[in-house]
Amino acid sequence: MFVKVIIDISHEAVDRPFEYIVPPSLEGKVSEGSRVIVPFGAGNKERKAYVVALSDKAEYPVERLKSIIAIDEKAVGIEDELFAMAAWMRHRYGCTMNTALQTVLPVKKKIKENIYKVVSLNVSGDALEAALDESKKSARFAARLRLLKELMQSESLPLSMITGKLGVSASVVNTMAKNGLVRIDSQREYRNPKAPSMARKDIVLSDEQQAAIKSIADRMHSDNPGTTLLHGITGSGKTEVYIELIQRAIDDGKQAIVLIPEIALTFQTLMRFYSRFGDRVSVIHSRLSEGERYDQYEKARTGKLDIIIGPRSALFVPFDRLGIIIIDEEHETSYKSEKMPKYHAREVAEYIAEKKKALLLLGSATPSIDSFYRAKSGKYDIEVLSNRNGGAKPATVHVADMRQELKNGNKSYFSKKLKDLLRMRLLKGEQTMLFINRRGLAGFVSCRDCGFVQKCPHCDVSLSEHAGGKLVCHYCGFSMDKPTLCPECGSKFFAGFRAGTEKIEQEIKKLMPGARVLRMDADTTKNKDDYEKILSAFSAGEADVLVGTQMIVKGHDFPNVTLVGVVAADLSLYASDYRAAERTFQLITQAAGRAGRGNKAGDVVVQTYQPDSYAIVHAVNQDYAGFYNEEVLYRDLADYPPLSHMMAVQLYSASEELADNTAAEIVAGLKGHFNDKVIIGPAKAVISRINDVHRMVIYIKDSEIDELIAVKDYVDGMSAGLDKNKISIQYDIDPIGSF
Ligand code: ADP
Ligand code: ZN
Ligand code: ZN
After folding, report:
1. Together in a domain, 591 and 501
2. What integer best gives the mean pLDDT of the chain?
């Protein structure tokens, strides 16, 4: 036997393994993931190494290879921990050791010394007043006003944050500098903006918050902190609870990881953490270069940070004294990786927390069925926050039955109720958010005579109609001119089912010509900063209506939003996976949470063709427990997670025949070997082709996760001889969304 090992994670590139012989005495004892001692270099110095691959053939001439000396039993350092985690991920989710290591380890890249620019106010007193007055005069100066207001709260702000998260363009900042309103300085190290202590609202935690903090802190200080679910409605002060718990962890000399979906990592959220913890916090996000990311890891490793905030990859920041991991909005699907290894941040966090004896805190207004089930069955502790802070009342939810609207002769996208309430908001100068589910589901073009739907020739999804008569594919970007007649039957009734964001925007403009409308969807947020710009502009009152897809996010307070419309609540019910009801419930509940955060009363209008579906009924009543009880029954009946487990074996190949045959062989092999398991398929994936790659899927269900891992390893064995360039196989355990 031969192995490939990595000698030293901290110095060599991970993709440079060395080959060694496994001596007969160690055969059977060494496996992928083992730590071993090897002779290294000219002096044959003994070094610790990590096994990343095993094989019975050597790649190099055997006479030039050295042998492993021993297996290393003692694992102590942070590298051992990271390596063990990679080995666990490989086992749990199915991928190569290399892929697992690349997920877990930071890419080694030194950064050139950067110069960071910071911006601060250059005027005060009357001059500042004058500048503020001037900026209020015209909507054209909205960005300038926004920056002035923020700079009054902070000593200075990094330029990158102003042009990024605050949504103020560099040219605006430069003009302001030229006019002497602000100063731009350079510094060597990135510093978080630090608010003068005055700027932070003095918050007296409510009894409910204090009780939750006490119980959680007691567990955090115990030997077995476990996982706690914090179920608190939107605006109940969960973030304040996180901040207080982090403070207590730090007071004990511990460190904290906070996961927030990238989309919710807004200026306002970051400022809450910065103003409390200053330069002891760092943020990891997708816009960091590899060098900058590595820099953060180094700071963490050398103890220069106490808190890291970021999306799921922030879990892999090497903290030695970790005390708490917080996952905010724990129900968000972005916590599940879509690439191999297809891990869920919650599961990996549980693994890390257990190893580190740290507490795992999951927060949500609409906990995932998975987490709530675990809380109910005693696996997690649970704390509840049921009051909104500042006494804001929950919004009133109205249901609009769109079938009835049609019968009454209303053919528009808006029910009478929504139109009436929207008009009132415009009169009162209050804001409205209109939410329509993911684009791509809507906007397809079909023939009313023969039913033909225009699909992408490469991806097997329907094309969406865009302004300018173009049909576009949202997977591969394919686009074509819209035919005027149906290509199948020649009918002229060939038109779009237009309920996309763009259409809604046009409709409002037609209905209420005076309304200022902002739109947020994949088209208007092509650049990463666009998202922030739109939210900041809306939050600053630069529009009356925001039409959007993924806009139900936290992190932004919109105190002037008093109306939320869910334009087509059913769209997510049509999705073809078992979590469709859960997602619909979450969307409506989160949308409702957006209305009336200030002290004005809020309204929510849910438009639906299925007002009796349980997801919609319970969401409208804001009854989480009611929804949970029905949903869990359905999951139980159908053997879906969390009551059972499910694994998708996904096949990708340019050859449809190869994909078909391989899938059939795998199913036959599994049926022969695991006759006690539910095996479904093979079937074409919901999207059976992307970029001319065919996709097949096989589902296996079992109540025990370890049984599914055994199935995965068996499939790995069966497929070992396949040409990886022609067909690839991936695993997704307890998948989210449809494949
Ligand atoms: P969540 O994270 O649950 O949505 P937040 O922590 O963002 O809630 O709180 C919502 C708003 O209420 C924030 O503006 C926050 O500063 C404020 N808030 C939270 N707790 C209190 C409190 N005890 N007293 C006053 N305001 C509070
Ligand atoms: Zn037709
Ligand atoms: Zn396509």
Report:
1. yes
2. 86
